[in-house]
Amino acid sequence: MVTEDLMYRQVVTLRDGARVLLRPLTADDRQALLDLFLPTPIEERRFMRHNVNDPQVINSWIDNLNYDKVFPLIALVGERIVGVGTLHFYEGAARHRGELRIFLARDFRRRGLGTKMTQALIDYAKRKSLYLLEVQIVRDLANDIKAMEKCGFEPACTLEDYYMLPDGELRDVVIMTLRLRSLEGEF
User: Facing residues of 80 across strands?
Assistant: First the structure.
């Protein structure tokens, strides 16, 4: 990652007029990130890959920041983090792809922030010359799937019993993709 990536700043205006700063996560954001994730209720945590109520999990993200592997973009209102989006980079034969993840504070959902963050990460992925972005969404989360469709992602496949909830129950996962570059030979 180059210095200009760390200097990235964008102020976005939400549908209700709220202004939000988008910028990369830094080690100085440790407490604000904990404040975002620690209150997450169990009904939401069950659909998350990591136990975000465990401070050690959040601290390990901060302690192991590597922008060449994961580009973490935060949304700030004042000093409060109200959203985080990550772009995960792959290596080897998958180096042309990236995976996008988004989490928003409850009071900033359905206000357009997720769309703004998704678009910012799509733009960043294009600057990094990725060909394809993917998101993985538990099929139960129909609103999340619709939101990603509005951002241009298309369902590629559904993997049955691909996600295990904390209680051991299995759920299907929808893999959605967004092509960032046209295929060779298209006209």
Answer: 77
Give the whole-angstrom CA distance, residue 151 versus residue 130: 17
Euclidean distance between CA atoms 24 and 5, whole angstroms: 8
| For the chain, domain boundaries | 3-133
Architecture of domain 3-133: 3-Layer(aba) Sandwich (3.40)
Structural tokens at position 54: 């465990």
Token pair recorded at residue 83: 């959203």
Conformation bin of residue 183: beta by default, left when phi > 0, alpha when psi is -120 to 50:
beta
Cα 174 to the center of its chain, rounded Å: 16
Cβ-based burial of 115 (10 A; exposed 0-12, middle 13-18, buried ≥19) = middle
Candidates 128, 125, 171, 173; CA nearest to 152 is 125
* 19 close to 9: Cβ distance less than 8 angstroms: no
- Dump pLDDT digits (tens) for 117-148: 999 999 999 999 999 999 999 999 999 999 99
Encode pLDDT of 58-110 as tens digits: 999 999 999 999 999 999 999 999 999 999 999 999 999 999 999 999 999 99
Alpha carbon 123 to chain centroid, angstroms: 13
The pTM for the full model equals 0.91
pLDDT tens digits, one per residue of 153-175 = 999 999 999 999 888 999 999 99
Q: Which residue has 């990094």 as its token pair?
A: 128
